[in-house]
Inverse folding.
């Protein structure tokens, strides 16, 4: 084994050790987020998807777009179109319909975008009536 090979092997071993350490820290961070931030389930979803800032912003933009459409009494995009747009934001994600539902549920949990939630639910998205879940 040459000195270059040994140096490369040493660097690889060090990088593997650092990667393992970062994974442990990330797992602990997710545990803290899960416990401490029950109101931040959308943030937890974005973290679990390893979403970029641009992707998270695109989700907000998409939701705001639907909200604006519904507010102006336009027909508004339906749940299928919404899921298609989510798949464009998160290419390569499996079960895009479920991801779209998870996004809408989590954004609506803290009282945001109720109108979007109701519109997408009525267009056929698999969502419970959030007003019933809140007790009114």
């Amino acid at each position: 084994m040459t000195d270059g090979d040994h140096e490369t092997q040493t660097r690889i071993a060090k990088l593997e050790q650092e990667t393992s350490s970062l994974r442990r820290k990330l797992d602990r961070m997710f545990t803290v987020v899960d416990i401490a931030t029950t109101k931040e389930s959308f943030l937890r979803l974005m973290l679990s998807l390893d979403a970029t800032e641009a992707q998270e912003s695109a989700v907000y933009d998409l939701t705001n777009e639907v909200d604006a459409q519904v507010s102006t009494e336009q027909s508004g995009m339906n749940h299928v179109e919404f899921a298609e747009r989510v798949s464009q934001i998160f290419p390569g994600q499996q079960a895009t319909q479920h991801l779209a539902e998870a996004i809408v549920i989590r954004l609506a949990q803290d009282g945001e975008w109720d109108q979007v939630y109701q519109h997408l639910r009525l267009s056929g998205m698999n969502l419970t009536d959030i007003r019933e879940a809140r007790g009114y």
About this structure: The mean pLDDT is 85. The CA atoms of residues 38 and 54 lie 24 Å apart. Helices lie at 3-36, 41-48, 53-71, 79-89, 96-109, 114-122, 130-133. The two ends are 73 Å apart (CA to CA).
